[in-house]
Amino acid sequence: MPITEILEYNAAHYGGDTALVEINPQELEDRHLTWRDYSLMEPTRNESFRSEITWQEFDQKANRLANFLLTRQVKRGSKIAILLMNCLEWLPIYFGILKSGAMAVPLNFRYTADEIKYCLELADVDMIIFGPSFIGRLESICDRLPRIKSFLYVGEDCPSFAESYNSLVSYCSSRTPAVPIAEEDEAAIYFSSGTTGFPKAIVHAHKALSHACVVEQKHHGQTKDDVFLCIPPLYHTGAKMHWFGSFLVGGRAVLLKGTRPDWILRTVSEEKCTVVWLLVPWAQDILDAIDSGKVKLEDYHLDQWRLMHIGAQPVPPSLIKRWKKVFPKHDYDTNYGLSESIGPGAVHLGVENIDHVGAIGVAGYGWRTKIVDADRKEVSRGEVGELAVKGDGVMLRYYKDEKATAEVLSDDGWLFTGDMAKESADGFIYLVDRKKDVIITGGENLYPVQIEDFLRRHDAIKDVAVIGLPDARLGEIAAAIIEVKEDHTLTEQQVNDFCLELPRYQRPRRVIFASVPRNPTGKIEKPKLRKIYGADHLVAQQNEISPSLS
Predict the structure, then answer these.
(1) Which of 267 and 549 is assigned the larger pLDDT?
(2) Fewest CB within 10 A of the end CB: N or C in the chain?
(3) Residues with Cβ < 8 Å from 261, sequence gap 6 or more?
(4) Cα distances (Å, whole numbers) of residue 436 to 194, 385, 515
């Protein structure tokens, strides 16, 4: 069924129940207030810190947007981008787009202006809905986006190049629009990228989104009484598709704007969260804060918290051992997926398989897996090959890129992930390496070519290679191996200063001055570099860890 029908069911059966809560702890700190101060305040004064909507309000907001879009000649196949930080409006906007028959196109809020322009043009976006954080970036490119018919601004003080979302949408009908939607219809475009750093536009149908709902609920057993804490950005398939399990059963979700350990634990405590999805850095920060005494577990009510699961990057087994010592009653799980397979769940460890920590698991609910050689023939257990997955969550295609689609998607529906893996004798899948050179740091993708191209602009740099090195907190960090031109000098500080032009998350965390090896065809031998520097870096990190934390 189309995923929009789930929202309509929840509105009809749980209309008065809370659907979404937004928590913004920074608002309290800016006002020099404590969480206890907040609890004693009048509700009308809390809205900047905590706000919520019911399922009925959620559905009505989505309907109003859908009905507005229909007045703007939006139709089946129209593409509408969302460029917002996590907020209470994000999900109603997403579903409003779907209810109009159009396709939702979530954008990474870290994109630069040029990256935004590239993605809008690649996906043939007709309209964009954006928030205050993006005024400057969009204003710098709006004159170069002739296809965009409308810029809708969510917030106060609407910029001159846009229209006010609230003013236009608030007075539209809250009834479900009479737009027939089938599960085979195209619903959304998500962006991904390989080693080139240029995003591909991934097309998913309603069927894939609905499949993600069922998969997540089957894996983690959400009920109406569960409360899901959502911290990662909603443009990311991981965050939204994990929430889909709660969405399917009408459970409450809490959107936390911030990742500080005390904020996470206080939100779990005050909002009675039972299911929390974390990234590796956040889990480590929580444990480190507890070990250091910066936060004390006795200050929080956490007995109801039943499940902690992690995804988006390889999970160190040592981290889970630490976690289980501190939270022995927590179930733990990890999921593997990619945007082309509608995010997490294609491979699933399972809470019952804690003894297999380190594996990504087995085929998820409704999924099939296989590991193949270069000719796409299945390998024997224990042999390394490329992981392929098949299920209703596989993308339809890369938008306007038949060649790239054919490279990863077979005629019979197998998606070849580009990740190298092996299967153990008892059937559990372990990732070995990535076929692509994408670096995953703190759950976010870095694209080496983009950083390399930037660094090559420096007058003193002859050649450069950017690789991922293992990191105990972030999973990986970007390291730049730099070959300096003859008769030039260059220091690490000079490189760091030069990289200030890059967004913070793209800046290399380590600089190594050395020659850059290339093979006879001119390609950088990155496996060799990872072998040379990866082990040394990991040993250095381990030496820095105190015995009490190892």
Answers:
(1) 267
(2) C
(3) 282, 285, 286, 288, 289, 290, 294, 295
(4) 6, 13, 22
Q: CA-to-CA distance for 421 and 407, rounded, in angstroms? A: 19
The dihedrals phi and psi of 123, each to the nearest 5 degrees, come to -90, 5
- Mean pLDDT, the chain, rounded, equals 90
For residues 246 and 252, the answer to whether their CB atoms sit within 8 Å is: yes
| One domain for residues 412 and 466 | no
Hey, what are 144's tokens? 């170069």
Sheet holding 429-434, edge to edge: 367-372, 385-391, 415-423, 429-434
- Per-residue pLDDT, 524: 77
Return d(Cα 99, Cα 63) in angstroms, integer.
7
Residue 423 φ/ψ, nearest 5 degrees: -110, 130
Q: Alpha helices, DSSP H only, in 293-428?
A: 317-326, 402-408
Domain count, the chain: 3
Question: How far is the first Cα of the chain from the last one, in angstroms, to the nearest whole number?
Answer: 48
Is 265 part of a structural domain of the chain? Answer: no
Convert the pLDDT of each residue in 195-222 to its tens digit.
Answer: 345 789 999 999 999 999 999 999 999 9
The DSSP annotation for 38-76 comes to HHHS-GGG-TTTEEEEEHHHHHHHHHHHHHHHHHTT--T
Tell me which residue of 103, 104, 72, 100 sits closest to 179, measured CA to CA: 100
pLDDT above 70 covers a percentage of the chain that reads: 92
Domain that holds residue 523: 440-549
**Can you spell out the DSSP letters for 90-117?**
HHHHHHHHHHTT-EEEE--TT--HHHHH
In CATH, what number is assigned to the domain containing residue 363?
Answer: 2.30.38.10
pLDDT of 547 > 70? The answer is no
Q: What type of residue sits at position 55? A: W
Which residue is it, tokens 């704007």? 257
